[in-house]
Amino acid sequence: QPDPLITELQDWASITGEGVDETPYGLPIEFESDVIRRNVPWLTADPISSINFTPIHALDGTITPQGCAFERHHSGAIELRKEDYRLMINGLVDTPLVFTYEDIERFPRENHVYFCECAANTGMEWAGAQLNGVQFTHGMIHNMEYTGVPLRLLLKEAGLDRAGDLSDKWVYVEGADASSNGRSIPMEKALDDVIVAFKANGEALRKEHGYPVRLVVPGWEGNMWVKWLRRIEVTDMAVESREETSKYTDVLEDGTARKWTWVMDAKSVITSPSPQSPIPHGPGPLVISGLAWSGHGKITRVDVSKDGGMNWETARLGKQGDSKALTRFYLDTEWDGEEMLLQARAMDETGYVQPTKDALREVRGENSVYHNNCIQTWFVNKDGEAENVEVS
Amino acid sequence: VATANALKAEIEDVRATAALQVASGGSLTQPAPRLVESLGLGREAHQEEIAAWDVDVLPDGRGLPPGKGDVYTGEEVFATYCAACHGDFAEGVDNWPVLAGGFDTLADKDPVKTVGSYWPYLSTVWDYVHRSMPFGGAQTLTDDEVYAIVAYILYSNDLVDDDFELSHENFMDVEMHNADGFVVEGRDTEEYPIWRDEPCMSDCKDSVDITMRASVLDVTPETEEEGEDDAALELPQETPSTTTVQEAPVIKTAAVATPDPELAAAGKKVFRKCQSCHAVGEGAKHKTGPVLNNVLGSQIASVDGFKYSNALTEAGAAGGTWDAETLAAFLENPKKYLKGTKMAFAGLKRKEDQEAVAAYLATFLGNPG
């Protein structure tokens, strides 16, 4: 039968559409209205101190639009004008300094794409398969191109002679919001690739991402990427703040806990097909797609299994992996219409291979909460619907 | 010609350098310069500015201001500012953090991580309470109040006796239960060496069985459509039953039904001080405090599904209603106006703020939320 969408004259082919300036700063077309951040209400007591998830099941490529990039606030997203913005550097520096927003923009700047992953991403899956959707199991991640000033330039402006031997020094970074989230970062990292950023994906940071200035700590857990950054203090020890003692520490099976577990290890997940993104067609050509990343550097390889880890095929990387940034992978395959147990397994440039859930549990037990980078399994039935499962 | 030739040579030179860089595997991109000299940007911070912002407290006690507070005082201050979320005995309300107990559960399934059972440093408690608490009113506590609250949290964890007084002088003498419970990192020695082997590609297991399904737990948030249906079901099927109070206040409701839009807009900003505990508007749900739709003109403590303090329940039973006057008096100093209320709020001292909030709340009359 001829398709009436082709044989009949459609409105859009005859009547004019919207003029320019209809939406001076655009939003996605209404047909994409389900591509939004979502939260899990039972996780936290109040949305003001909570987290939501990036709809990674519906995105492709690697860059996350700011408007749907996951949010994590401890006392809500504040409104802080550039004119009211101040950044202080104090502590063991030669001259304690105060910068305005304008000052920050006068330093040499760099552009880098980095992923930001909450240490608790996939944390609800430690004890077993819980949430049916890659948005909920793996959506505490985003990947943006940041524009900002290397932190080392600001530190050097204040002078580090007074700090003496830098190998045992720290910077304590703190936000301007009511939670004043503060974290200690070893000086070696601070002088390496940390950025004081004011733009993401070309535009100003969104309110929920720390407008006007946030910290970017490549490859390390998202909690350290302090938003609304207002103070950087050079210290001779870690502050051991609430966020680095009572939270973001990993309880092991014997009750002891690991602290200072900053790096996000290599991880990958298939975003489609997945529970929120079933196979919409029958047997035949199928694109299996997903994301991989490592806080240690570049992703070098991603393998995909269709039988729960028995046999593996090496996937195609969308483009060569960037260091500490999301890498897109594709497996262009033929689906026979039978059930599948889909898994992805990432490797990074250090040779690290993403572990299975059982391997992780063997070392850490089930109470760790943070840093769950296990291999995820989706069960796909004959209708192409997917479900979050665990396999032997 | 000489200038042109010089320019040509210069271009050649740049090209040659670029070609060399590309050939050696590099590219033309460069990181920002690693500056040696200062740019002279920014200005020196004043001592008052540093004192205002640099308030963190280090594990060895550096940064603690002089002061003191005892358990008895702490119990009162805690009841005022903290108990609404953390419970009278620091046991935690709803999903808010539990601050006491949980000793010897860290090796159990679902360990209870409290100040007593888990936190390794007392400085963290003082620092966090002082800088980030109470929720929605951060940095409003005095130093002595913070000492008192910390003393009470220690007492609620049985780490000190009821006659204990905490001060900057004895601060470092307090022993934390889990002080030795942490190790640094661990993945570099226990995980990376074994997870860097070349992975298996075929016939890696004998068999594969599904051992667990997420759908069994059924805790995934529903899609929008389903969510809306549920919300509709949750709506009250009838208006709150208190017919006795609904007659008189109707006039008052009418009187405040057309709030000054400017005042209401100002009230929306002031209301940020309330939003950590109260929601208002369509679909609003109870938080630590009740939903505030239709509050003006209603009987005190009459919202369905919220557990009020005895003080408010009694005020409502005695026929008390919320109008511009009673609301202003309550907001000015909640605990003074109504002794026994659970509302942990320091109060809106400015009359303009009280009126603005009333005007803002008046825009939520007739909302079924």
* Extended strand count of chain A: 24
Give Rg of chain B in angstroms.
31 Å
Radius of gyration of chain A, taken over Cα atoms and rounded to an integer in Å: 23 Å
Total number of helical segments of chain B?
Answer: 16
- Which oligomerization state do the chains in this entry correspond to? heterodimer
Uncertain runs of chain A are: none
Q: Measure the end-to-end span of chain B.
A: 83 Å
Structural class of chain A: mainly beta
- The coarse silhouette of chain B is extended
Largest sheet of chain B: 2 strands, antiparallel
What sequence of helices (H) and strands (E) makes up the elements of chain B? HEHEHHHHEEHEHHHHHHHHH
Helix content of chain A: under 10%
Q: What proportion of the residues of chain B is helical, as a percent range?
A: 25-40%
- Measured by DSSP, the beta-strand proportion of chain A falls in 25-35%
Mean pLDDT of chain A: 96
How many helix segments of chain A? 7
Find the structural class of chain B using helix and strand composition: mainly alpha
Record field, number of beta strands of chain B: 5
Q: Of all protein chain pairs, which has the greatest interface, and how many residues does each chain bring to it?
A: A-B, 106 and 85 residues
For the biggest β-sheet of chain B, the strand order reads: 2-3
Give an overview in words.
- The complex is a heterodimer of chains A (392) and B (369).
- Chain A is mainly beta.
- Chain A contains seven helices and 24 strands.
- Chain A has a five-stranded mixed sheet.
- In chain A, strand 10 and strand 11 (203-204) form a beta hairpin.
- The longest helix of chain A has 8 residues, at 151-158.
- Chain A is globular and about 80 Å long.
- Chain A starts with a helix and ends with a strand.
- The relative contact order of chain A is 0.14.
- Chain B has 369 residues and is mainly alpha-helical.
- Mean pLDDT of chain B is 84; it is low at 225-256.
- Chain B has helices spanning 2-23, 47-53, 71-81, 83-86, 122-132, 143-156, 187-190, 214-217, 224-234, 243-246, 249-256, 261-270, 310-317, 324-332, 334-337, 351-362, and strands at 43-44, 68-70, 165-167, 182-184, 210-213.
- The longest helix of chain B is centred in the N-terminal third of the chain and has 22 residues, at 2-23.
- In chain B, 39% of the residues lie in helices and 4% in strands.
- Chain B has a two-stranded antiparallel ribbon with strand order 2-3.
- Chain B has 16 helices and five strands.
- Chains A and B meet through strand 1, strand 4, strand 5, helix 4 and strand 13 of A and strand 1, helix 2, helix 5, strand 4 and strand 5 of B.
